[in-house]
Design a protein that fits this description.
One of its GO terms (cellular component) is U5 snRNP. It contains eleven helices and no strands.
Amino acid sequence: MDFASLMNKELSKAKTTNDSSKKYLKRSEIEEERKTAYIAEQKALEEEREAKAAAKRKREEELATENAAREEKRRKLAEESRKLREEREEEEERARRKRLGLPELVKKKEEDEGQAVQDDVPEEELREKLREIGHPVMLFGESHAAKLRRYRKLTTVMSKGPIPTTLALVEEKDMKVDGTVPADRDGRKWLFRQLASYFTMVLTEYERTMEEEKSETSAGKTAYSAMVQTRENMKPLFRKFESNDVDDSLLVPVVQIVQALQERRYVDANDDYLRLSIGKAAWPIGVTMVGIHERSAREKLHNGEKGHVMGDEVTRKILQSIKRCLTFAQVRWPPTDLRQLMG
């Protein structure tokens, strides 16, 4: 072997060694590795976040279920307490009325319940109607009956006047009552609309007159305050008209009073008011006897002749407001027969 071949052999060894020991990476390869590592890290973080969120949702659902069960239990207890309280109050009211000689409470008739069922709205239709008016289709823990009440409350149109009411008021030509109380439900509804319309007309004129005559004097302020008090005290009567919850022992005399007012028979209307408020018993005011023993004749004088003025505070204020409307009506619409003008 000559010197040239030995040199070539050594040079080839050195070249192979240098090629195998040389290591380098391109910038694109480094960037690709960094991107892959970043994506893997983000994926792991995302999976961890999703696991935590799923665990949180599960805990929230469990808490919501527990709260719903607790609220349902509380609602049932409250409903039972309310029923017991209403039964106790009804029993006390029945005993009080019996003690005072007032007529017994009239329970709601089955036809009222049938009417409530008849006025029901199917669930799907009710949901669509709530969506149309832009309100949620269901609130948390809301039953179908509560949803129906909420819809009716949202869609109820109140009339404009001194006392806003859900009753559809009639025109003046249709306000005339015949002095009788219908037995059917539709007839009573029409009667309540007539009465509400008439009292609204009287209160409107009453308010307008007091506004015009309002002054800084003491008498003017007193008259205006009486008008405001009359308007406020008549609101419970309108609520009774709306709910068809007026006892016949009160409704019949009120209809007779309104009929007399519409016919401008103010003396007769005042007589009906006195019979309604204090009754027809002998010696209605003050001492009725001076002895210490009750006589059978005295008992017969008072049987069935109790007035409504002492029944309860709300009824007393209603009757007082009707009397003020009567007094104003004879000034606003004077009678053609002067004998029907109260002194």
